[in-house]
């Protein structure tokens, strides 16, 4: 017969404390002294005790489930987010339930509220572009749901948002490309109804203006953040008589599409064409040539969002977490960019 599973009573007896004190430690309460906390944690580890989630939920009127709502075609981005969230969930005893949806659907708000109600989740993390919906945020507030939005713009109370400063990151990218000597630059945007696409374009364009270099609007092409749209945009830009010597794509997936088309057209990268992207996903360092890009700390953003939502769910808002909302992406220079040379 298998050994009896240790209970909270066993932990309390071994640690010489009350069951209530053990419960506080399990639930992440700050109302426990550091020495007592350490002692109880040592007993929990020694006994290999894990709380019964169903009983725990009934006792606290919580499900210990967090939701993740998204509409993003980039599977690598979603994987980074989930890893970041689970890094916090696992230490706090929460599970994650994911829910894909359609950002442009007419029933977005109804769909998301139905998911929250149906899954009985305690709080929800909303990813871009869904996080950009003012109607959804208003509905979540009105219904009293705990939520945190991940976004590229400061759209909400800082308790409820984690922002990636993408305008500043794109300024850094623009300065780098110009420093190499590029003046003839192409830009493949993301969907222009997304805040993130506008932030990246404006951050890049405004910096070029400051540097005395305009961005030719004929060389700004709208993409869809997909590999295929990167190829389509590259075909359009690289067929021009005055083709760009550098192309920035709104994400790494589209940048990979540009690299593919350049190869097909016999254009050498980076000798005849510099290519840069955004995100620094796992493929960026593995493709040949490796991709110059903006590293957005997606995992760190997701972990911060999970921390915020758990604090909110547990009515235990920590001032430093409340105020901490802005993360700063930064430039990663690799093989796909160099000074321009004459076009053969």
Question: Would you mind describing this structure in some detail?
Answer:
The chain has 344 residues and is of the alpha/beta class. It is 45% helix and 15% strand. It is built from 13 helices and twelve strands. The strands form two sheets. Strands 2-1-3-4-5-11 form a six-stranded parallel sheet, sandwiched between helices. The longest helix is centred in the N-terminal third of the chain and has 18 residues, at 75-92.
Give the proportion of residues in helices. Answer: 40-55%
Helix and strand sequence: HHHHEHEHEHEEHEHEHEHEEHHEE
Radius of gyration, in Å, reads 24 Å
Provide the β-strand percentage band: 15-25%
Largest sheet: 6 strands, parallel
The low-pLDDT segments are none
Class computed from helices, strands and strand pairing: alpha/beta
Shape: elongated
| Average of per-residue pLDDT values | 90
The CA-CA distance between the termini, in Å, is 78 Å
Strand order of the largest sheet: 2-1-3-4-5-11
Q: How many distinct domains? A: 3
**How many extended strands?**
12
Contiguous helical run count: 13
CATH architecture level-2 label of the largest domain: 3-Layer(aba) Sandwich
The CATH class of the largest domain, by name, is: Alpha Beta
CATH-level-4 superfamily name of the largest domain: Response regulator
Stated plainly, the CATH topology of the largest domain is called Rossmann fold
